[in-house]
Write a structure and sequence with these properties.
Elements: H1 5-33, E1 37-44, E2 49-52, E3 55-58, E4 61-65, E5 68-76, E6 79-88, E7 93-98, H2 107-112, H3 114-117, H4 119-135, E8 144-145, E9 150-156, E10 162-168, H5 174-183, E11 193-194
Parallel strand pairs: 1-7, 10-11
Antiparallel strand pairs: 1-4, 2-3, 2-5, 5-6, 8-9, 9-10
Length: about 200
Amino acid sequence: MEITESQKKYIILALSILCAAMLLLTISTIIGRAGKAAVSFVVSPDETQIEFNNQKITGSRTVYLKPGEYSFKATRDGFRENTIQTTIKDKPIRVVFALIPTGKVSKSEKSTNAPKIDKITTEALEKEQTKLAEANPVIKKLPIKNLIYSIGYRADSSKENGIIVEIDAPKGYKNAAVNEIRKAGFDPSKLNINFRDYANPFTE
């Protein structure tokens, strides 16, 4: 069947509109991501919900956020909730949540409902966590929290099996947190520590 001149015009017009729409979408995406960093969430089980700054997302995905201090809370029925506090700068980061089942989810239930709780992903993240713990024994002592300060960690995307120990405490109590690390049997000067707007004395 031969295409008429009129049909050709409609096809060209439709393609032009499609190209223009794609261009506008690309420009809008670029503008929307300007000044933001990519934050890739890897979660297990796959229906885990993450809350931060009055926003909620579900599952493993990437979002773009402005630099600053963030607290990400991961929850899912039948699993122990977990919170990761981190500082987002101008580089992409990865935030990993591997939630631990509570008594509400039995081992047999995990086995029979493997697709639902993403058993493969869970096992993969557990292996990754094991590698991190082997390379960074301090993980076994974290998190440490009290009314004065909290000490946690996050994966260092710039270094294989590396971590960043994060200390969140008001002025005057940073050293107390550092001493807590010493009491746990670790040398703070050998750790990559982020003091959150506090000058790290071990990098000078």
